[in-house]
């Protein structure tokens, strides 16, 4: 018959055996984890991203729409922008809460225009085409000959002083007609400021909508234009034919 002392020793041996087995199991588990980490470390970054499921165009569109809604709801969207194809090239459109703030031709470099908007208006700028649907629609109607003026809220914050005054007078030049730089200077209250009028037209942040293309030289030649002489001629011919 086994004594109490022998029974106790046998129990201790059994516990030591179990502890040893647990220790070996723990070491095996750690070794397995190290092996997995080593394999993960050996994967290239490209392999890791390649393992992710692809995002299709529709999913990307929905995600971007959610981003736009979230930014707007949080008050983090100060400038929305989009592009539109027209007979005078692709135009960049940008708007603030106050209204349309920028129309830019391709020759102005859209990326540079966006960078200046981020600097001069707000860095909280986002591609949000739906915000400019009304603007795009009216511009389409203009090029289709269905619209002679624009019914859009405008933000003149990129123009100051006399330049802003000149731009506000440009909308008085009726569709299908032109005015000389000298005539615009007189209308703006400073007949001698012909050069300043030319500068205001050259830096107009809202071409087409604010019709600086209707301002020509006194001899009838088209003069300079932010979109280039060909674009200016196209707009003048479009309006002349539609008004005839």
Brief summary of the model shown:
This protein has 244 residues and is of the alpha/beta class. The chain has helices spanning 4-42, 45-50, 57-73, 110-120, 133-143, 161-170, 181-187, 194-202, 229-243, and strands at residues 79-86, 89-95, 100-104, 125-127, 179-180, 215-216.
The proportion of residues forming helix, as a percent range, comes to: 40-55%
Strand content: 5-15%
**Rg measurement, Å:** 34 Å
N- and C-termini, Cα separation: 126 Å
CATH architecture descriptor name of the largest domain: 2-Layer Sandwich
What is the CATH T-level topology of the largest domain?
Double Stranded RNA Binding Domain
User: What is the level 1 CATH name of the largest domain?
Assistant: Alpha Beta
Instruction: Choose one word for the global shape.
Output: globular
Number of strands: 6
Structural summary, described in words:
- Strand 2 (89-95) and strand 3 (100-104) form a beta hairpin.
- The protein has two domains: 59-157, Double Stranded RNA Binding Domain, CATH 3.30.160; 159-244, Winged helix-like DNA-binding domain superfamily/Winged helix DNA-binding domain (Arc Repressor Mutant, subunit A, Orthogonal Bundle).
- Helix 6 crosses helix 8 (194-202) and helix 7 crosses helix 8.
- Residues 1-32 have low confidence and may be disordered.
- The chain starts with a helix and ends with a helix.
- The chain is built from nine helices and six strands, in the order H-H-H-E-E-E-H-E-H-H-E-H-H-E-H.
- The chain is globular and about 65 Å long.
- It has 244 residues and is an alpha/beta fold.
- The strands form two sheets. Strands 3-2-1-4 form a four-stranded mixed sheet, with helices on both faces. Strands 5-6 form a two-stranded parallel ribbon.
- The chain is 51% helix and 11% strand.
């Amino acid at each position: 018959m086994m004594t109490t002392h022998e029974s106790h020793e046998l129990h201790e041996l059994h516990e030591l055996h179990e502890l040893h087995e647990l220790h070996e199991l723990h070491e095996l588990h750690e070794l397995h984890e190290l092996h997995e980490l080593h394999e993960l470390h050996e994967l290239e970054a490209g392999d890791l991203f390649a393992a992710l499921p692809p995002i299709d165009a529709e999913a990307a569109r929905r995600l971007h729409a959610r981003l736009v809604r979230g930014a707007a709801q949080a008050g983090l969207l100060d400038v929305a922008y989009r592009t539109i194809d027209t007979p005078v090239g692709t135009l960049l459109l940008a708007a603030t809460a106050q209204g349309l703030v920028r129309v830019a031709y391709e020759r102005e470099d859209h990326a540079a225009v966006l960078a200046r908007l981020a600097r001069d208006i707000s860095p909280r700028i986002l591609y949000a085409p739906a915000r400019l649907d009304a603007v795009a629609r009216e511009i389409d109607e203009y090029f289709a000959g269905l619209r002679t003026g624009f019914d859009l809220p405008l933000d003149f914050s990129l123009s100051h002083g006399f330049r802003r005054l000149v731009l506000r007078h440009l909308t008085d030049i009726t569709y299908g007609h032109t005015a000389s730089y000298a005539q615009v200077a007189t209308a703006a209250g400073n007949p001698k400021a012909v050069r300043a009028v030319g500068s205001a037209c050259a830096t107009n942040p809202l071409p087409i909508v604010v019709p600086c293309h209707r301002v020509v030289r006194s001899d009838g030649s088209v003069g300079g234009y932010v979109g280039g002489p060909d674009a200016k001629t196209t707009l003048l011919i479009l309006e002349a034919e539609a008004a005839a």
